[in-house]
Each structure stands twice: as C-alpha cells, then as structure tokens.
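Reopening this one. Same input as before:
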Amino acid sequence: METAAETVQPIDEAFEWMLVEIFGHRTHWGRGIEVERFGAKMLRIDVPEIEWSTPSEDKPAPEPLVKGWVTHFYGGSAIFSNTLTDERTVLIRNAPYAKPALYLAPPDEDRAAGGVDLDAPADDDDEPRW
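Same output, byte for byte:
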C-alpha cells in the first residue's frame, strides 16, 4: 500500500500581491495564488514576516526585510474581498513599527543664557518664578 506525503507546492510566478479580507473580520496582506487542495479550489496567501534593516552609511533609512513567510489557505466562500496591490505596499503593511528615535530636548534657553535659575530656593519676598 502506497501513501503519498502531501507537501505544499513552492510558489511560482503566477502569484499576485493582494489584500484579502476573510469574512470581513481578518485581513491578510501577502502574495496569493489559486491552488487545489482537498479536491476544491482554494486561495493560498503567503504573508511575509518582516523586520527592519539596520541603517548604514550606504542606506541611511531602514528598509523592510522578509525573514520568513506564513501560509494561510481559504475556500472561495470565506473570501469577503480581494484587492490587488504591489509588493512594496505588502511589505510596508506587514512591517512592525520602527523603533522611535531617541530625542534629547535642547537645553533651556534661560539656563543656557545665565538667566533665572529655576532650581534655586525661592525667597518669600520674591514673586513666583514660573
């Protein structure tokens, strides 16, 4: 008796970059293709796992890099909407938020110019310093 191990077919050039809404509740940004599984036509959507590149002298702005793919299969009746898009949009939509840059506030102008010292103890006769 022979048993055939089912493997996921590697993606070919027939895929399309798309946004897919499933039952109007879940959304996936990825590359999709129509495949036959379990005797029925299904949508295979591969969603990229993205991380940001570290800036360098050559590329000062971070760019999204694909580190893997997560595959989902859906039947035709589960698809609420399908919108075609491009690869760059898919990568940006799946990228995690970039880490915020560290911002140091400039020194207070009064302190830098030798003006009023707000840290000095207040005299009772003087008006408030704020």
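So the earlier flakiness isn't reproducible anymore. For the record, Confidence is low (pLDDT under 50) at residues 1-9.
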